[in-house]
Amino acid sequence: MSDPKNKDGGRQQEVASISRSLKQMAKEARCPIIALSQMSRAVEQRSKDQKPQLSDLRESGAIEQDADIVSFIYREEKVKGEDEISPEMRGKAEIIIAKNRSGPIGSFHLAFRPELSRFDNID
Signal peptide span per the entry (predicted)? Predict the structure, then answer.
């Protein structure tokens, strides 16, 4: 993989190198690799729609470029005040498929059970 101590090219170069290494490992091992990425603060600065989008991935466009699938979990309850949430969205999370190299993009909802840190299908 990449040596995180090598910071000659800056943080963006470091993240890009790690992203490429993960992609290469997945190809060689012929298995999926799930990697997490921090979001930039840009999402918090948007006044209206704070749903995450590809451009919100922090540090590098390389993550967006290298990934086969990029998905986000959006919980309105974490972003808006209790009185701003519609009753039908309480206890729910939106799963956003923002990139899918071999399929459709879109979103769907799941029930979120915080006491179990678990997502369930909505009945």
Answer: none
User: Half-sphere exposure of 29 toward its Cβ, with a 13 Å CA cutoff?
Assistant: 9
Give the DSSP H or E segment for 24.
Answer: helix 10-29
- The DSSP symbol for 40 reads P
pTM over 0.85? The answer is: no
Dig out the tokens for 68 from the structure.
């086969």
CA dist 73 and 99 (Å) reads 13
Residue with tokens 């939106």: 94
Residue type, 20: R
Query: For 90-119, what is each residue's pLDDT tens digit?
Result: 899 999 999 999 999 999 999 999 999 999
> Which tokens sit at 39?
């979001």
